[in-house]
Design a protein that fits this description.
Order of helices and strands: HHHHHHHHH
Number of helices: 9
Shape: elongated
CATH architecture of the largest domain: Orthogonal Bundle
Mean pLDDT: 87
Strand content: under 5%
Low-confidence stretches: 1-10, 211-218
Radius of gyration: 21 Å
Oligomer: single chain
Number of strands: 0
Largest sheet: none
Helix content: 55-70%
CATH class of the largest domain: Mainly Alpha
Number of domains: 2
Length: 218
């Protein structure tokens, strides 16, 4: 008879990853033990090690799955923006708005970001996990940099803009919004932060004829 721990049809690997992701986001990777994972998954330790050679292998699989889902979500959101407008600025602004609306519809505050969690505990991981974490952050930069470059071909910004720094700022706002939403339990913070970032980009690249002058509120 086939060992259920090792049967790919049972989805055991995905079940372990789901349990591990929840635990890591709740209390960190170091505080998440193999023993608790196998207990909740109702498998043996041998079953765990069939799917993952060690905890670093588990960490690598968690990151790979996380970035795959993240890429799919962002690809879909910004592709919809491009479908709705051929203008690079408008399509990017639409994408940000769609992302904010998606985050606002979550039933509770976003549980957190695995990449950030792993960065905080990088000493626990081997070079492969640390390299992937580094690569993911650079991939975020490249994603937003592509949109910024397309905008810059048509629009002149208000002042000098370092496209890499602006791309990193977008990632920082999203990641910071995740942290604040998690810390406060307020799911509104993340979409609000994304919309503020959207307003900043809009003002940064407004055509000359549409520029506005900001005055302090008296």
């Amino acid at each position: 008879m086939e060992d259920p721990d090792r049967s790919p049809g049972t989805g055991t690997r995905e079940k372990i990853l789901d349990i591990a992701e929840r635990a890591v986001l709740a209390k960190g990777f170091g505080a998440t033990s193999i023993e608790e994972l196998v207990a909740e998954a109702n498998i043996t330790k041998n079953g765990f090690f069939y799917h993952f050679a060690n905890k670093n292998a588990l960490a690598l699989a968690l990151l790979e799955r996380y970035v795959e889902r993240d890429d799919a979500l962002l690809d879909d959101v910004f592709a919809r923006g491009r479908e709705l407008s051929d203008d690079p600025l408008q399509s990017f602004l639409i994408g940000l708005k769609l992302l904010a609306e998606m985050m606002a519809k979550l039933p509770e505050a976003f549980p957190g970001c695995l990449v950030a969690t792993f960065c905080y505990q990088e000493r626990l991981f081997d070079k492969d996990v640390r390299a992937l974490t580094h690569d993911i952050v650079l991939r975020w930069r490249a994603r937003f940099r592509e949109s910024i470059d397309a905008i810059a071909e048509r629009y002149r910004p208000v002042g000098e803009v370092d496209p890499d720094a602006l791309a990193d700022m977008i990632s920082t706002v999203i990641e910071g919004g995740l942290v604040l939403s998690r810390a406060t339990g307020n799911s509104v913070i993340l979409p609000d932060q994304i919309m503020l970032m959207r307003n900043y980009v809009k003002l940064l690249y407004l055509p000359d004829g549409e520029r506005v002058t900001w005055r302090p509120v008296e």
